[in-house]
Amino acid sequence: MQDPNYVKKAFSRIADRYVVTNHVLSLGTDILWRKKVGRIVAGWNPETILDVATGTGDLALEIQKKCPDTQVTGSDFCEEMLAYAAQSGVRETVVADAMAMPFDDDSFDGLTVAFGLRNMADWSDALQEMYRVIKPKGHLLVLDFSLPTGVLRKPYRFYLNKVLPKIAGVMTGEGDAYEYLAGTIEQFPSGKEMTDLINSCGFTGASARPLTCGVASIYTATA
Fold first, then answer.
1. pLDDT digit string (tens) for 82-106?
2. Which residue among 41, 54, 123, 142 has its CA within the 20 to 30 Å range from the CA of 60?
3. Are 142 and 198 in contact (CB under 8 A)?
């Protein structure tokens, strides 16, 4: 069961260590994933982008780099994370709960959410709220962890549940938070299950792109 309040409290305490920890735990592949997202978003030629659950702003910064003429807004319900994002160079930030965003209907040409949907209280309600603020024919992109299939599945799950929380605990002092996140990855829908969920929330043409042997996935759809 997702516990957004727990996530908010835990990660507000490690905002200054969050980015480095992610890079170490993913062996730097999270940087490559965000660069790929930046290229996809640039292909949309958007005037406005909302990066939901922007955290420390890694993805928003990548989109700003790839789309210099786009107005990029980063939103998050964790003020400590958002302050770090602003300090890092995200030009526009808004403290907002993704379940009830303070934006008008049809406000953005596109919306991205990286490693955030998984931790929201209700995935369907969150996606419907995202659909509300995206303009008709606008774009949605979700980047999140998934479980690989085949021979990699068992060793990856061992790393995810046994190794990752210990390394993160040493680096952040919040090993319990990463144990919680490992559990959310196990429960989070992926592949066709996720594209079906996205389409059921008003979007059309949802598709999945596995990354790094299925460790993560990019999902895109049209509003």
1. 998 999 999 999 999 999 999 999 9
2. 123
3. yes
| pLDDT of amino acid 165 | 72
Question: What is the per-residue pLDDT for 181?
Answer: 72
Which helix (H) or strand (E) element contains residue 30? Answer: helix 29-44
Contact 196, 219 (CB under 8 A): no
DSSP element (H, E) containing 11? helix 4-12
pLDDT at residue 132 in the model: 98
Closest CA to 84 of 15, 13, 31: 15
Q: pLDDT tens, 169-190?
A: 665 666 566 666 777 788 899 9
pTM over cut 0.70: yes
Between CA 144 and CA 9, with CA 48 as vertex, the angle to 5 degrees is 45
Q: What is the pLDDT of residues 135-146, one digit of tens each?
A: 999 999 999 988
Pick the CATH number of 4-145+191-222 from 3.90.550.10, 3.80.30.20, 3.40.50.150, 3.40.50.720: 3.40.50.150
What are the start-end ranges of the E strands in the chain? 48-52, 71-76, 92-95, 108-114, 134-145, 204-211, 216-222
Distance (Å, whole) CA 148 – CA 66: 29
Q: Where do the structural domains in the chain lie, given as residue ranges?
A: 4-145+191-222
Ramachandran quadrant class, 214 (left: phi over 0; alpha: psi -120 to 50; beta: rest): left
